Amino acid sequence: MDIQLNSLNKIGIDYPPYIIAEIGSNHNGKLELCKKMIDAAKNSGANCVKFQSFTKNSIFSKKVYEDNYFIADDYRNRTDFTLEKIVDAYSLKQADLLEIKKYCEKIKIDFACTPFSSNEVDFLDSVLNVDFFKIASMDCNNYEFIEYISRKNKPTILSTGLSHQHEIDKAIKAFESTGNKKLIIMHCVSLYPPKDSQVNLKKILTLKNLYPYPIGFSDHTLGVEMLIASIALGARVIEKHFTIDKKMEGWDHHMSVDENEMKKIVNGCKRIFEGLGSEKIIRVESQERVDSFRRSIVTKQKISKGTMIQRSMLDVKRPGTGLSPEKIKNILGKKVLRDIGEDEILKEEDF
Question: What is the CATH number of domain 287-350?
Answer without folding.
Answer: 3.90.1210.10
